[in-house]
Design a protein that fits this description.
The complex is a heterodimer of chains A (337) and B (288). With 337 residues, chain A is mainly alpha-helical. Chain A contains 15 helices and two strands. Chain A has two domains: 264 residues, ABC transporter involved in vitamin B12 uptake, BtuC (Orthogonal Bundle); 44 residues. Chain B has one domain. In chain B, strand 1 and strand 2 form a beta hairpin. Classes of the chains: A mainly alpha (337), B mainly alpha (288).
Chain lengths: 337, 288
């Protein structure tokens, strides 16, 4: 094991230790806030997977999350038991993800973005108008968490565990032959088609898988707030999640978490002091897109690289090569945008 | 079926379609030339609408209000293009993302300046008001005026695009950006002009739409969805496609609202999905 691996493992172990201890140290309000951050990060991860590996930026995944959430909430209102509720949520997720996949699998770039945007707004519209089932603008209230997750710290640990599982699953998917094929399609659809890959099928599966992750986030959101309303699937929500991904850094492992932390902090904490927080967030987002296309994660990497260069000027060759390889990798991601 | 009811729904559909055409044609023009999917287009619409509402209640003249709304939207478009979009020119995704950022900022600005209550432009004040009555058939003049006005604008757009020098320059820019600038056309200026024009159309649509649809800070995303569906059906970059798509969606929406109010969003979505599966480039779009 070389030094950087050791540092990484120590850092991850420390982070896990801190996260496990946190609920015993800080107040319930902040523990719930961190749960919201992790749930948002799961939703952001679902978009990040598509954006990073396939260069398919979705502006409609909140719609999938909302349809899963509504499935759960509706089933709960109908008096289904936990298994039944999850089954309904699962069916809703699968059907919605499949529809998203079908209508977007032949598109790329801006077209993908617009088609997912339209699909998300339709989800919002149905939630808003079909009031006999969805409760209309008022949404569905009073959905209780399953026993065992009822108190805030139980739910926190549950969300944390799901986040870790989803992140590991996404890393495995990204490193699998499937992930490799997606990156191939991202870099050149024509080449992959002539190599015999069925490009639309791959895109369908990618959208479908990311939809499942979005559905998980949707169920967790309903349990978090014990409530769902049409805005959960609206454009504003989808845009906010995309803002998280871009600010965090497209295609990076910790980007969604970093972005979610920042956006949720602004949304929940800054909003108590300052009404015009969306303006701040919007301006920050524009600045990131124009000046820091690698996002926070990329920015932090640049900073650490700069520190290391300063600290070890004697062997620039060794650190230089490994980091250059990484930076070209991230660069190729962004030039593809 | 009652023929009066059908005729009223057809006219409802056409007047809403006319509004959609004004919004969608600006969107599709910008896209055709610059490959920018301007998601702030809906925000320009709402901005124009609010400025018009406020100006009309101050000056009691509808047309001054419409002009003010158009001008403010155009100015915002100019600022967006010059100050922000120019920095990411030619990079598809950052361009769209910048417009999303602009959308978030403008939406919040509108909430701060005008509040969240629904508003509408006061009727009359020089705009057509009252209703036309022919036997059983009663229909508001304002809606008829929108249809006529939009037909005039649409014809002017077609003629301008096909038979004028400006139109020729824009078509040259759409076909081959490099070749156009090699022939001495200042393509940057053309981009700015077209973006400004698109924003102005959205602002104007907002101004006249404020007398037709209810106006809230969220109206921008609503109208953006309809415009997106229209251009996806018609084909991105095609004005003819925008016209056909707008009439189609306007009519579908009018009848869906009358017959299936619970699913009125879904009914415009179904034709879009159908077009995407059968003709991914839209009815009048060119292959990418």
């Amino acid at each position: 094991m070389n030094r950087s691996t050791v540092i990484k493992l120590v850092a991850i172990a420390a982070a896990v230790a801190i996260l496990v201890v946190l609920p015993y140290v800080i107040s319930s309000y902040y523990v719930s806030l961190i749960s919201i951050v992790f749930i948002s990060a799961i939703l952001a991860s679902s978009i990040n997977m598509l954006a990073g590996d396939a260069n398919l930026v979705s502006l409609g995944h909140a719609g999938i999350a909302a349809s899963a959430g509504y499935g759960l909430a509706w089933a709960s209102k109908q008096g289904y038991d936990l298994g039944g509720q999850l089954a309904v949520a699962g069916i809703m997720t699968v059907v919605t993800s499949a529809i998203y996949g079908l209508i977007s699998m032949r598109t790329k770039g801006i077209f993908f973005l617009m088609v997912t945007l339209a699909a998300g707004m339709v989800c919002y519209g149905i939630a808003f108008r079909w009031s006999s089932v969805t409760g209309g603008d008022n949404g569905l209230t009073g959905i209780s968490r399953p026993p065992g997750l009822a108190s805030y710290w139980q739910f926190y640990f549950f969300v944390l565990a799901i986040f870790v599982i989803v992140t590991i699953a996404l890393v495995i998917t990204s490193r699998s032959p499937f992930g490799l094929a997606m990156r191939g399609i991202r870099d050149s659809e024509t080449r992959m088609r002539s190599l015999g890959y069925n490009v639309p099928n791959y895109k369908f599966v990618a959208v479908f898988l990311s939809g499942i992750v979005a559905g998980i986030a949707g169920v967790l959101t309903v349990w978090q707030f014990e409530f769902i309303s049409p805005s959960a699937g609206g454009f504003d929500r989808s845009a906010m999640v995309m803002v998280m991904v871009i600010i965090g850094g497209i295609g990076t492992l910790f980007g969604p978490l970093l972005g979610a932390t920042l956006v949720v902090s602004i949304e929940q904490v800054l909003s108590t002091y300052f009404d015009r927080w969306p303006m701040v967030l919007g301006a920050l987002f524009i600045a990131v897109v124009i000046f820091a296309p690698h996002g926070l994660d990329g920015g932090i990497r640049q900073l650490t690289r700069w520190f290391r260069r300063r600290r070890s000027p004697k062997d620039p060759a060794i650190t230089g090569t490994s980091h250059d390889a990484r930076s070209t990798a991230t660069q190729s991601t962004t030039t593809q945008q | 079926m009652d023929p009066v009811f059908v005729l009223q729904q057809v006219l409802n559909g056409l007047s809403f379609g006319a509004l959609l055409f004004l919004v969608a044609s600006g969107f599709t023009l910008t896209f055709g030339l610059m490959q920018i999917a301007n998601l702030a287009h809906g925000a320009f619409y709402v901005l124009g609408a609010y400025v018009a509402v406020v100006t009309v209640s101050a000056t009691h003249n509808f047309w001054i209000g419409a002009l003010a709304g158009t001008a403010v939207a155009a100015g915002t478009g100019l600022l967006t293009e010059r100050a922000l979009l120019r920095r990411v020119r030619g990079r598809e995704m950052p361009e769209v993302l910048v417009t999303v950022g602009v959308l978030i900022v403008i939406a919040d600005l509108i909430l701060a300046l005008f509040g969240g209550h629904p508003r509408s432009v006061s009727s009359g004040n020089g705009a057509p008001s009252g209703a036309i009555t022919i036997g059983d058939f009663v229909y508001p003049q304002y809606r008829l005026a929108i249809i006529v006005l939009t037909i005039v604008i649409a014809v002017a757009l077609f003629v301008l695009q096909k038979h004028s020098k400006v139109g020729a320059i824009i078509r040259a820019g759409v076909d081959n950006r490099e070749m156009a600038s090699a022939l001495g056309i200042n393509i940057d200026r053309v981009f700015t002009a077209v973006f400004l024009f698109g924003a102005a159309l959205a602002g104007f649509a907002g101004a006249i739409g404020s007398g037709l649809l209810s106006l809230t800070p969220g109206s921008g995303t609503d109208i953006l969805l309809f415009a997106l569906v229209v251009v996806i059906i018609g084909g991105l970059g095609s004005i003819r496609g925008a016209a056909v798509g707008a009439v189609l969606i306007g009519l579908i929406d009018a009848f869906a609202k009358a017959w299936l109010p619970d699913f009125s969003y879904f009914t415009i979505f179904a034709p879009m999905a159908l077009v995407l599966v059968l003709r991914p480039n839209g009815l009048f779009g060119r292959a990418a």
